[in-house]
Amino acid sequence: MRTVSDRARFEREIMPHLDAAYNLARWLLRGSDGAEDVTQEALLRAYKFFDGFHGDNAKAWLLRIVRNSCYSWIKVRPKMEAMSTDEEGEFNPEHERALAEAGHSLPAPDAQLIATADRQLVHAALERLPLAYREILVLREVEELSYKEIAAIADLPIGTVMSRLSRARELLKESFSHVSR
Amino acid sequence: MSAGDAMKGLDMHRRLDAYMDAELSIEHSVEFEHHLGECPSCQAGLATRRALSSALREKLEYHTAPLSLHRAVRNELGRAGATSVAVVSAARRTPQWMRMAASLILVAGLSSALTYYGASPGGDVIPDEVFASHVRAVESENRLVDVVSSDQHTVKPWLDARLDFAAPVKDLAKDGFPLVGGRVDYIDSHTVAALVYQSRKHFITLFVWPSEGRAKSITASARRGDNILQWSDGTMTYWAISDVGGPELMNFVKRFQAVGTS
Known about the structure:
Chain A is an all-alpha fold. Chain A has helices spanning 4-13, 18-28, 34-48, 58-75, 78-82, 93-102, 111-115, 119-127, 131-142, 147-154, 158-180. Chain A contains eleven helices and no strands.
């Protein structure tokens, strides 16, 4: 049972991050109608376990819960993420490293082309990416979180955050050339 | 290039992302910058990454939580425990686009923004009225618009006949914001024009009424899940509100400002 002051503290510390929570869910679920339900469920879960939150990073704490809720949701709907994820499951560290190394030499659109891309194109380029890469790009570029925060949210070592982000950017670059065609 | 240099180059390439994200130690960062100066491929890689980063930050739709979600969560929280219903926290996250809007004000002249807030004692109630009117209209389907038309040549005369000023009604369909229609509303003791545009599945209400004084650049605020942008062109005051993301609403406003009436 929550007290009034719990509720007030939740309202003060967690509710301001509702937009970030919803935005993450939208991107993880690829804009699916489930985002509202999943975010709501995550918020209730957060409320339930709010006693256990003593840290100073409410946003990262909440986003971790939202992320877990999204993954559970996707798990029982495998078809959803299966579409257009030809590269899903490809977390071969060797592969990731090789690509990160070769990264900047891959043929891809130049900075100018990306800079002039319109909103639909940016949306489409990100939407095509597999889950793990969409996720890391939203956390880094949209929510502007640090590697440490991303590591905590996505439950990854910091080194993996770095290599996955590098890979995600390479994939996004390729995705741009794909959608610009 | 020696084998040692090549190895070092590979090692450096791996630091590109961390360098851009300001996640390198100062020492590594200095080392990388030294390498960057003499490595064209890292320079190109950095330029591409920066372009990707700006594209995501500036152009990606930010999905702000819809009002229905705010309500549902607060309902459930109320049911889950304490009875007090707290007010919406005003300490919302300030998205980058809002900070951009704030910096636009600085560029356009801090003094005009300050005079605006200083000279408008009732300034704070307007966003609340704008929000209330928008939400009321969007949620009750038959109150959204009183004249339904995507043609500004239909909407404009309808409004002109009911207002004591000529509301600027613009065609933004080709910019992705088709006109839905218009209605006459009442904000801050003014009879105002409410123009309703669509952005994909969302509605944008643009409230317009005459105002005197200097033009004021765009300022941003938010109510619940809705973003609000306000500006003035010296003859009219404009308030745009919607649950579309901040950057999207900013895009709408820029388009509106760019397009002439016809």
